Amino acid sequence: RQRQMCIRDRIERDLAETVAVKTMAKQTAEAECKHHWVIESANGPVSWGECQICHENKEFQNSITDADRDY
């Protein structure tokens, strides 16, 4: 019975480490990603886009005002 507990503890620890490593890898990839955005069609003031590489989601404005323009 004690051996089963040790095996279960080891499996749980390994699973937690695997999840942590995958999470860190995903965060690193997102931080270093050269985004390639696919943005939904304009239907209102904003549209959602998703990066084809890292799958990050972002909101994009569909129009800008004169105050936002960089002349």
**What separation lies between the terminal Cα atoms?**
74 Å
Arrangement of strands in the largest sheet: 1-2-3
Strand content: 15-25%
| Poorly predicted ranges | none
Helix content estimate: 40-55%
Q: What's the overall geometry?
A: rod-shaped
Count, helices: 1
**What is the makeup of the main sheet?**
3 strands, antiparallel
H/E topology pattern: HEEE
Quick one: how many beta strands? 3
Classify the secondary structure makeup into a structural class. Answer: alpha+beta
The gyration radius over C-alpha positions equals 22 Å
Describe the protein's architecture and organization.
Helix content is 44%, strand content 20%. With 71 residues, the chain is of the alpha+beta class. It has a three-stranded antiparallel β-sheet with strand order 1-2-3, with no helix packed on it. Strand 2 (46-51) and strand 3 (57-61) form a beta hairpin. The longest helix has 31 residues, at 2-32. The N and C termini lie far apart (74 Å). The model has no long low-confidence stretch (mean pLDDT 83).
Give the topology, please.
Layout: H1 2-32, E1 37-39, E2 46-51, E3 57-61
Antiparallel strand pairs: 1-2, 2-3
Features:
44% helix, 71 residues, 3-stranded antiparallel β-sheet
Short description:
The protein is α+β, with helices and mostly antiparallel strands and 71 residues long. The protein has one helix at residues 2-32; strands at residues 37-39, 46-51, 57-61. The protein has one helix and three strands.
